[in-house]
Amino acid sequence: MEEGKKRMAVLVGCNYHNTRNELHGCINDVLTMRETLVTRFGFQLSHVELLTDEPGSLVMPTGANIKKALDRMVDQAEPGDVLFFHYSGHGTKIPSVKPHHPFSQDEAIVPCDFNLITDLDFRQLVDRIPKGANFTILSDSCHSGGLIDKEKEQIGPSSVNFTSTTFPSQKPKMIPFEAIQQHLSSLTSINTSDIGTHLLVHFGGDASLKFRLPPTALDWSESLRSDAGILLSGCQANETSADMNPMMTGEKAYGAFSNAVQTVFKQQSGKLSNKEVVMLARKALQAQHFEQHPCLYCSDENVDATFLWQPKGPSA
């Protein structure tokens, strides 16, 4: 099998301009990643789709548009292909709709229109990947650990404590569930605490699969199987990821995890495994006194697989 014969990526950056949830570094994160994919990982620019909420963008990163872009990429996948999704923006946790789990919570990302994309949506995408291809997700958002439903945890919650620093330019990339509920209620004018009702009324068929299908129609089994999904999360499921806006020093704004990954790439010119990328990003964040711990979720065989099947080092 020829590894990585076709390389495709969808990159999404949401800054939520002129809202109370505004971030500053997310678009910079994906622009930097686009350059890295082309110069280091052998992606063709024409195979990298960029969605940002920069004012004037022709295609905004709404929930529907993000899912359409991911669907297009997955539909083209063949054995040996490399698929990559980098998301930088807000994340959230929502009440689980799983039977017998009334107090548990599930992970979701927050597109610019608040049409949540959930862990179940990413599971459904991963399950469509043909055997022999892989699909790597790098999510720089709060509560991003576990963003692929039922994916096996390989590098998980850290018990290591170290001195963290909260910077004046630091903002968590999280919108609380209550704030999302309030925003959706203002759109639907419906008096209910059920977020699924709001999403279905406002977004209809574009709402997450988690809310469109009854719980009895979904496979809620906890069994883990080998699959093509690889998740590098910016933090643990119970942590926040930082958005940095160092305006005082004149530097570009950035997401702490996205920036840590870029630091790793600059310091390590050779091939890196998925595990090495996560562990080195943890070290980079710790050195900068960020209290967030990137995690890795994937099958056993993908732990030590080369990140994005890097074809060669930049100096090779």
Automatic annotation (TrEMBL):
Residues 6-299 form the Peptidase C14 caspase domain. GO terms for biological process: proteolysis. InterPro entries: Caspase-like_dom_sf, Metacaspase, Pept_C14_caspase. Signal peptide: none annotated. GO terms for molecular function: cysteine-type endopeptidase activity. Belongs to the peptidase C14B family. This is Metacaspase-6. It comes from Vitis vinifera (Grape).
